[in-house]
Amino acid sequence: MAETNIIVIGAGVLGLTSTLVLSKHANFKITVVAKHMPGDYDIEYASPWAGANYLPVGEPGTELCRYERDTWAELDRLVKNVPEAGIHHQPTVLYKRAKDASSVMSQKDPWFKNTVADFRIIPSSECPAGCEYGTAFTSVCINTAIYLPWLLGQCVKNGVVFKRSILSHISDAAALHHSGTPASITINCTGLSAGKLGGVMDPTVFPGRGQIVLVRNEPGVMGGLSGTDDAADEITYVMQRAVGGGTILGGCLQKDVWESQPDPNLAVRIMKRCVEFYPELTNGKGIEALSVIRHGVGLRPMRRDGLRVEKEKIEGNWVVHCYGHAGQGYQSSYGSVAEVERLVESIVGERARL
């Protein structure tokens, strides 16, 4: 089969996962072009700031639900067979407060109960005060500082070339292919930058600011709470990263907020809430017993119309979009990229018939 030159724009979790899956096709020759690469920490680069974990939120029947469902098997395989990827299984406990509205993640009978392992309902008698029930199951938590470089390394092993570049227009990407021959397909995994990239300029893209505290304490559990009394845009969760990556305490979801610096008052509220609901963090000693590694802020790449995984022609060239996944990039990655792969194959097949 004839070779196909492909450019992937973006080296976040979706760009790297797209590249890895496509690089397994011997006839695809891939160059990744990105402003930021694994190892960078920048407010424009969302993936390193993520927890990251698998706690589905997609409503049944939606694309997000399908992509989340189709991602679990590969994450589970990596835990079992590829420890160097930096992912581990984690016992998970989610509490539903009586005063909060129900969501996919906090339902007693969520669609993912038969996807994850060991799902069970926790009765109110075993929950913190104010909670009507909880759910417990086994999920995964990802050490992004290990996983992103691992993805990059797997791509390089498959012959992918990486280049740093800042693009003003998506059509400029094709000429950057390492072969010297322009790429015929571009994969757009630009996250928030899709809102300002020429040729795309998606007006529905916006940031969902998140703030976390990374600590050395190990609760031995991953979990979350259905709401808080502090503010409508604040949330409570803990997740212990694999391979000594520390524990993430969160958080918030502040829509259309671009502020890159941590708010110290919010940081205190985050720590207090996490210690209250997960006392294993400090063995009941309060937030003074937390050993803080750093405070962090990330901007989730959100989209008012929901995630976008589709193909279109821009200035006569095929582009496959894969962005707008908000805080679900990791947990929907392999499902989303399976659709990217299908779209690329459809383009290649159509060209072969011409």
TrEMBL record:
GO CC annotation, single: cytoplasm
Which residue intervals define the domain FAD dependent oxidoreductase in the entry?
6-335
Q: Which residues cross the membrane?
A: none
Q: Fetch the InterPro entries from UniProt.
A: DAO, FAD-dep_OxRdtase
Q: Which domain of life is it from?
A: Eukaryota
| Cofactors | FAD
Database matches in PANTHER family:
D-AMINO ACID OXIDASE, D-AMINO ACID OXIDASE (AFU_ORTHOLOGUE AFUA_5G11290)
Full protein name: FAD dependent oxidoreductase
Q: Which organism is it from?
A: Mytilinidion resinicola
